Target: Superoxide dismutase
Amino acid sequence: MKHELMTLPYALDALAPLMSKETLEFHYGKHHQTYVNNLNNLIAGTKFENSTLFDIILESDGGIFNNAAQVYNHDFFWNGLTPTQSAIPAKVEAALVKAFGSVEEFKKAFVAKAVGHFGSGWAWLVEDENQNLKIVSTSNAQNPLTDNLKPILVCDVWEHAYYIDVRNARPAYLENFFKLINWNFVEENLA
Model:
């Protein structure tokens, strides 16, 4: 099975000015594409050659895991963004209020987790086996699937996600990220 770079659900310049076309050209067009290319090269001739991305993540380690997880993480990240702002669906708002007290408290906690993450990685809104929402961060290519957690929303906090637009100001990037969240995608993941 050959894995392919996902097609973005919007144009490269659609998230500007909050996330520039240049950022997407590098982050999506180069970083994400490289993970796809590396994964295909690494699985050729192995037991993972015909495996789904999900199965590779759960059953591999080392370079194969790192590249498969980065493909998954980036696919999830891009799908979680939209240039078209909409109201938070009632179901999502109710779930966030139940878990965090309010949408604003969720935002504060998520931003704190993302900004406080040391080094490269990801900030996730996840659902555990009891359908409780929580915020976790993972380093490098790690993701919640390996901890039996269901991803709901993710923010990439590797520097290549924001350095072109805001340099080293991760908090500014997080403010922009919250203006781009695809709440309909979040709602789908809660279903």
About this structure: Strands lie at 121-127, 133-139, 150-156. Helices lie at 21-43, 53-59, 62-79, 90-100, 103-116, 163-166, 170-180, 183-190. The longest helix spans residues 21-43.
